[in-house]
Amino acid sequence: MNIQQTIQRFTADAMADLFGVTMNPADIQVQETRKDFQGDFTVVIFPLTRFSKLKPQETAEGIGKYLQKSITEIHEFSIVQGFLNLQLTNGFWYSYLQNASNDWAPAEHIRTVMVEYSSPNTNKPLHLGHVRNILLGYSVAEILKARGHKVIKANLVNDRGIHICKSMLAWQKFGNGETPETFGLKGDHLVGKYYVAFNKALQGQIYELESLGTMDKEQAEKQAPLMLEAQEMLRKWEAGDPETIRTWKMMNGWVYAGFEESYKALGVDFDKMYYESQTYLLGKDIINDGIEKQVFYRKEDSSVWINLTDEGLDEKLVLRKDGTSVYITQDMGTVMDRFNEFALDQLIYVVGNEQEYHFKVLKAILKKFKLSWWDHLHHLSYGMVELPEGKMKSREGTVVDADDLIEEMLQTAEKQTKELGKMEGLGEEEQKELFRKIGMAALKFYILKADPKKQMLFDPKESIDFMGFTGPFIQYTYTRIQSIFRKAATDGVALDGAYNTDYAIAGLERELLQLLCQKDATLASAEANLSPALMANYTYELAKTFNKFYHDHKVLAEPDAGIRNFRLALCAQTGATIKACMALLGIDMPEKM
Q1: How confident is the model at residue 325 (pLDDT cuts 50, 70, 90)?
Q2: Using H for helix, E for strand and C for coil, what is the string for 10-59?
Q3: Is 50 exceeded by the pLDDT of residue 397?
Q4: Which residue in 167, 156, 189, 118 sits closest to 407, CA to CA?
Q5: DSSP of 338-362, one letter per residue?
Q6: Which position among 409, 450, 494, 500 has the lowest Cβ density within 10 Å, counted as fewest Cβ atoms?
Q7: Average pLDDT, stretch 253-279?
Q8: Cα–Cα distance measured from residue 174 to residue 153, given in angstroms and rounded to the nearest whole number
Q9: Neighbouring-strand partners of residue 74
Q10: What mean pLDDT value characterizes the chain?
Q11: What single string gives the DSSP state of each residue in 194-212?
Q12: Residue 58: CB partners within 8 Å, gap ≥ 6?
């Protein structure tokens, strides 16, 4: 139990003993004291007055005295406008630093959770929008793992459908047998090239049909020869036509090899791969069961629907009149399979906010089936990513390619690092690895520091500023700490834990300790909100506060050995915490910079 939980528990005891009220300790708000007031932690009194039936000052006075008597680590308390500020003893902070653990505090209830992220189409390479999805999903999974949960990282690849056939058809018509090897292009890029080529050729056919004056644009698109051929190819695929299947497997193979390179560059992984070509029929069996249970109904044209108006939604098609399934049907099948296979406690879909309605419908359908876990699905809905130039469009080939973005980040990292002279004493391979770590930290941190729910603007130049709210700034802070210990080793200074406990911890030293003490509470909040942004912002505050401390206080040059040992321990714990937090964001830390 950490100090905040201790304060919560004894405050709940105080409410029971003083006012005869039983409260859940978790409902009592304990937060870090504002820097302009004296204290370390603050109990928010206002919500408690409705139980105490007393004024805030009187309620705080009673609780303050109770806590001071019950918790030996509380030195004194003060009351400011209904806030009970508690100042801890120096002894508590010395003891905290000496016994601080670099492990994460586990959650009270351990769960089995699947996090589905990436979920690309095999008709184009990964782009900037995918990068946000992938980084969010990976980081959320790592946060859940740090809390002790069993996590399955899943990827559902959309490897079938009309969009796949478009790339295949264009390759057959315009490709002249090109392969990634003969053309010298990553497989996903080559397939994406033909997806763009298909749409350009299609637009030309649509224009020709429109110019005849016999049909509008929508009709022209449906009647365009290329679109009709793509639809025929899809029918052949579903019928198992050998030649169509051969081309499909070959081109998908190119894409998978390309994706794997991109995933490796991003430093992410998956425990379970799903392919829509293997799952798209799963939900069809559920339809008949749903009709029997009167969850679904069949229309005169044989299509199957569900009425969700009582859930504030509308009527939803779940099976077309020709018997083919729609996305929601497939999702019903896959989600039931997953809960059965893994006995999941929760399934988190990392999907853009344009799909919010889809997941509301999915949950509503599962609720109609009276499944006990229908509410254990969570849509981590994130905002789109834009560049200063505007939105991206796959069909027009104007997307920001993930591989190009990664390469740009690495080149920018190299340029910036060389200009700032932050690679002294490093060999060629060490330099290359440093550029990779800095470039990827810039990309990942900039994306993950933003609230997932909000749309964001990605600025590559701003992301790599060594003095800004960036990953490289935090990396530089970490390497600064490591350099302290390299110099200490050279000077023969040992970290022996013998502190001068007469030294009063105050100012930035106390601020740094207060922040370190927030580590596990921040992780718990990041889990509850599924927000890596909370970890990113916490880590930045920690790095920023350390730099202020380092500027104002001597460490190795401190003549008092006891104070020097305390400050070295403070540096060590800060460095370890920064590294652990950045690892949850998928960011590697260099030792030198």
Answers
A1: confident
A2: HHHHHHHHHHCCCCCHHHCCEEECCCCCCCCEEEECHHHHHHHCCCHHHH
A3: no
A4: 189
A5: HHHHH--SEEEEEEEGGGHHHHHHH
A6: 494
A7: 96
A8: 38
A9: 88
A10: 93
A11: HHHHHHHHHHHHHHHHHHT
A12: 52
Residue of 116, 115, 117, 121 lying closest to 276 (CA atoms): 121
Per-residue pLDDT, 394: 41
- Rounded CA-CA distance 192/197 in Å is 9
What is the C-alpha separation between 392 and 377, in angstroms, rounded?
29
Count other C-beta atoms under 10 Å from residue 53's C-beta. Answer: 10
State the average pLDDT over residues 345-366. Answer: 96
Which one has a higher pLDDT value, 124 or 379?
379
First-residue to last-residue Cα distance in the chain: 37
Backbone torsions φ then ψ of 524, nearest 5 degrees: -60, -40
Q: What phi, psi does 387 have (nearest 5°)?
A: -105, 165
Please compute the mean of the pLDDT values over residues 179-207 and round it to a whole number: 95
For the chain, what is the largest distance between any 2 Cα atoms, rounded to a whole number of angstroms? 92
> Of 84, 7, 77, nearest to 43 (Cα)?
84
Q: What average pLDDT does range 285-291 have in this prediction?
A: 90
How many CB atoms neighbour CB 195 within 10 A?
A: 24
Region for residue 505 given its phi and psi (left: phi exceeds 0; alpha: psi -120 to 50; beta: otherwise): beta
Confidence of residue 427 (pLDDT cuts 50, 70, 90): confident
- Please work out, in degrees rounded to the nearest 5, the angle formed at the alpha carbon of residue 388 by the alpha carbons of 384 and 390: 55
pLDDT tens per residue, range 532-544 = 999 999 999 999 9
Q: What is the DSSP string of 364-424?
A: HHHHHTT-TTGGGEEEEEE--EEBTTB---TTTT-S-BHHHHHHHHHHHHHHHHHHHTTTT
- Average pLDDT, integer, range 502-518: 93
90 phi and psi angles, rounded to 5 deg: -60, -35
Distance between CA atoms of residues 77 and 186, nearest Å = 64
Question: Residue 324: left (phi > 0), alpha (psi -120 to 50), or beta?
Answer: beta
52 near 15, Cβ under 8 Å?
yes
User: Which amino acid type is present at position 539?
Assistant: T
CA distance 427 to 442: 22
Q: Which amino acid is at 470?
A: T
Percent of the chain's residues with pLDDT above 70: 98
Long-range contacts of the stretch 222-228 (C-beta < 8 A, 24+): 226/169, 226/198, 226/201, 226/202, 227/202
Residues 6+ apart with CB under 8 A from 131: 266, 385, 402, 405, 443, 447
The two structure tokens encoding residue 200? 């350009």
Which residue do the tokens 């022209």 mark?
Answer: 220
CA distance 442 to 416: 12
Give CB contacts under 8 A, 24+ apart, made by 306-314.
306/365, 306/368, 308/361, 308/364, 308/365, 311/360, 311/364, 311/367, 313/357, 313/360, 313/361, 313/364
Q: Report whether pLDDT(398) > 70.
A: no
pLDDT single digits (tens) 25-39: 989 999 989 988 999
